Amino acid sequence: MPNTLFEKCAISGIGETAYVRGSGKSETALQMEASLKAIADAGLSPKDIDGVIPYATGSAVAEDFITNFGIADLSLSATTPLGGASCLAAVQLAVGAIVAGIANHVLIPIGRNGYSGARIGSRVQQLPQFRTVGEFEMPLGQMAPAQLYAHMARRHMETFGTKSEHFGKIAVTVREHATMNDNSLMKEPLTLEQHQSARMISDPLRLFDCCLESDGGAAIVVSSSERARDLKSQPIYIMGIAEGHPDSPSAITQRPDITTLGTAKAAPRAFGMAGVDHKDIDVAEIYDCFTYIVLCQLEDLGFCKKGEGGDFVASTSLGLDGPMPINTHGGLLSQAHIIGMNHIVELVRQLRGQGGKTQVRDAKVGLVTGYGDMGDGGVAIMRA
Amino acid sequence: MEIERVRPSPNEDTKAYWDGLKEGRLLFQKCGDCGKVRHYPRQVCDECFSMDVEWIESSGKGKVHSWTVSQHAFHPSFKGDLPMTFVTVDMDEGVRVAAQLRGKDVTPAIGMPVRVAFEQMDNDLTVPVFYPA
């Protein structure tokens, strides 16, 4: 029963705009540009799209896609408001809808001016899910994700002995990958010393523990595996897909255990559906709004036990030649903050063998996560 | 030019909490049926699903659950307050509260005993703060 969605659908197309600081384009234009690229990559016409799952708090709604693409009969429109887990929650919904026969080709677009438009730190407050934080914590001065996540990181450090250097290793590795990516914002290498001496934002999170704010758009098309096989690009099959929410999620002050994310609930479902083990994962694109969140997800995903993330990161290469290459594109930390859609696009590239300078050798099975401010986790496992 | 403060917009579910702060009282919801204490204010008891609610006054005592020192304000109205130390506190009543930590040369630590106090920001807004107990 739990495996009904196993390989029923595939990512049939991917698209990205240039990732920049200052796009000079509207957020809706960024989404249209990325969407047209993804649809062309699939070898489809924009009119073939019959399902769209726009970003819940984005500028574009389903009607914009109907109008711009001249879609005659859109049969699915929905949103999945899970912050940075939205994209994978949308993939889960798309797969379910396609298997149910509601739609054939579902477009999932994302795009925003996170740098030149409203700053991300203020924009999270527009999420209805942020209402509790907005009413009870923002008037105290505690309002930005960096401040809220600092409590989580601090608790993890004091409980399990996790160190800032562990966060630093993640930042340094992800930056190294970004320097090899033509479409990334951070092209200069980062050293552990630079990480350690960077200014504190909210203790223990230093500057390079925090992700970028960027402008850009990215999009994917999800189709049935059967249809995807006849399309232009190599389909990347969705083996396992799940979302998960922590207990009492509306503010970190209410979560019984702030060192565990909804990812811990999603991961067993995604791995169970995919029928693979952790050792089968060749490449992992892990949502990295903050370095600590990567470490925490490695635990919640089951790559190591809860509390052992620091030791795991210290003793395991996360680079391209190691057993566990992560964020081969440079992630939110050093490529761009495209709400994790850039992670999905990158995983598809890696599994198609189109990873360019950061291509992981023989990458056959990969994992991608999303993570939202309410502790939501999204996990997908895919194969070529 | 004065910078507009970040304000709550209390509704029917939460007004009693903010009114309590103005009177120097930290109030929590208690289920009118099973007695489970909850915070922040919400509509339904997650233990017995009752919507009956009463308000109890907190002892004001608790222990630090986690903490951070923010060196960045994220809103202009807090720039003059940097650095700001925030704590999450496990209260004796079994719920968790977030607030700034006050007191000279205080280094927070998990488990540190604290007590609540109240700071009136203006006529419309009073917020909780903690001091070492």
Secondary structure topology:
The complex is a heterodimer of chains A (384) and B (133).
Chain A: E1 9-16, H1 27-42, E2 51-52, H2 62-69, E3 76-77, H3 86-99, E4 105-113, H4 120-123, H5 131-136, H6 145-160, H7 164-179, H8 192-197, E5 200-202, E6 205-206, E7 215-224, H9 225-228, E8 236-244, H10 263-274, E9 283-285, H11 291-301, H12 309-315, H13 331-335, H14 341-352, E10 365-371, E11 377-383
Chain B: H1 15-22, E1 27-31, E2 37-38, E3 53-57, E4 61-70, E5 84-91, E6 96-101, E7 113-122, E8 125-132
Parallel strand pairs in B: 6-8
Antiparallel strand pairs in B: 1-2, 1-3, 4-5, 4-7, 5-6, 7-8
Question: What does this 3D model show about the protein?
Answer:
The complex is a heterodimer of chains A (384) and B (133). Chain A has 384 residues and is of the alpha/beta class. Chain A has one domain (9-118, 211-383): Thiolase/Chalcone synthase (Peroxisomal Thiolase, Chain A, domain 1, 3-Layer(aba) Sandwich), CATH 3.40.47.10. Chain A is 36% helix and 16% strand. Chain A has helices at 27-42, 62-69, 86-99, 120-123, 131-136, 145-160, 164-179, 192-197, 225-228, 263-274, 291-301, 309-315, 331-335, 341-352; strands spanning 9-16, 51-52, 76-77, 105-113, 200-202, 205-206, 215-224, 236-244, 283-285, 365-371, 377-383. In chain A, strand 2, helix 2 (62-69) and strand 3 (76-77) form a beta-alpha-beta unit. The two termini of chain A are 24 Å apart. The model of chain A has no long low-confidence stretch (mean pLDDT 95). In chain B, strand 7 and strand 8 (125-132) form a beta hairpin. The radius of gyration of chain B is 16 Å and the shape is globular. Chain B has 133 residues and is mainly beta. Chain B has one helix and eight strands, in the order αββββββββ. Chain B has one helix spanning 15-22; strands spanning 27-31, 37-38, 53-57, 61-70, 84-91, 96-101, 113-122, 125-132. In chain B, the strands form two sheets. Chain B has a five-stranded mixed β-barrel with strand order 4-5-6-8-7. In chain B, strands 2-1-3 form a three-stranded antiparallel β-sheet. Chain B has two domains: 11-57, no CATH class; 59-133, OB fold (Dihydrolipoamide Acetyltransferase, E2P). Chain A binds chain B through residues 121-122, 132, 134-144, 146-147, 150-152, 154-155, 158-159, 199-205, 248, 250-254, 258, and chain B through 5-10, 14, 39-40, 46, 65-75, 78, 81, 84, 86, 88, 96-100, 109-110, 121, 125, 127-128.
